[in-house]
Amino acid sequence: MVSSRKLTIAIIAGEASGDILGAGLIRSLRKRYPNARFVGIGGDEMIAEGFHSLVPIERLSVMGLVEVLGRIRELFSIRARLLDYFFTTPPDVVIGIDSPDFTLAIERRCREAGIPSVHYVSPSVWAWRQKRIFKIAKSVDLMLTLFPFEARFYEEHQVPVAFVGHPLADRIPMEPDTGSARESLGLEPDKPVLAVLPGSRGGEVERLGTLFLEASRWLQARRPDIQLVIPCVNRDRERQVQALVESLDVKLSVTLVRGRSREVMAASDVVLLASGTATLEAMLLKKPMVVGYRLSNFSYKLLSRLVKVPWVALPNLLAQKPLVPELLQDDATPESLGAAVLERLENEQERADLKQAFSDLHQSLKQNADERAAMAISELLERQG
Predict the structure, then answer these.
(1) Are residues 147 and 235 in the same domain?
(2) Under which main EC class is this enzyme filed (predicted)?
(3) What is the CATH number of the domain that holds 30?
């Protein structure tokens, strides 16, 4: 269906991942509404699609409690400016992409003013602070989720929802090219590769870096042929990891790569990583993995009481069973992590079974997310008239 309606579609993306989602969504919506105007907050990807950003996206890209508190007045000012703009020249729909602490409040105010609102990428309300669902229900006319288990949660609470699939599942091929990735990274083609991902933030690397390096050293002592590769998100993380490597008592043979984390995982036989989106990428690349994580004892005890799901790794949540080992807090030791990696490195039958399970999960998420999201929003717009 192609409509000649001259719509104004407001989109608010708060960080780089949201900018990528927003760009894909704009492309798919423009097929349906070629005369539409797109406005709000977005980055270079969205702007390249003809989007008009009222505020640079960098002004919303704030991480960490201290950083947020230091910018709280500016964030409130940006929110007020957006709302004033939307109330003065009402768009036909407001779409918040992720960044729920910022976008949901805007969506609620717009909905109260009679402007339909959509939220794209569910907060982890199904996992913890589940009472947030009541606030979300008052804020959105439609929730777009990346995972099917999220959609089921909203359906149970009578919140309009559409499962659209995950854009990464659309972009990552069903069969990774391990050989090409190894050649590109200058790795030996016939020796096993362990990808080590202790996180992208300084605090994560500080907490997990030495632990993962000691696990790698334990493993390398038993498998001297293994190639260790650590992708670092930027120069600061590269320097941080290099300092941790140099601080070890025993020399560790390891290759550091700036960026290219997906390519490093594609080149690997097994991945040792922190929980988070990287577990989804490793799954889509069909790689056996071991998940390790540590928090402060206080944070861990607090979260243990709040979290309502039995697993933290996305492959386990998607499968609703423990496909990959999760070694958390006191269970995360160099020996336990190393042994879990070694088992996945040497058990060929488990690797084959896991590849099939990951392929099935990949297929379930490969839904052409941009198009499905645009279709759901289009249906909302047509109902609204």
Answers:
(1) no
(2) transferase
(3) 3.40.50.2000
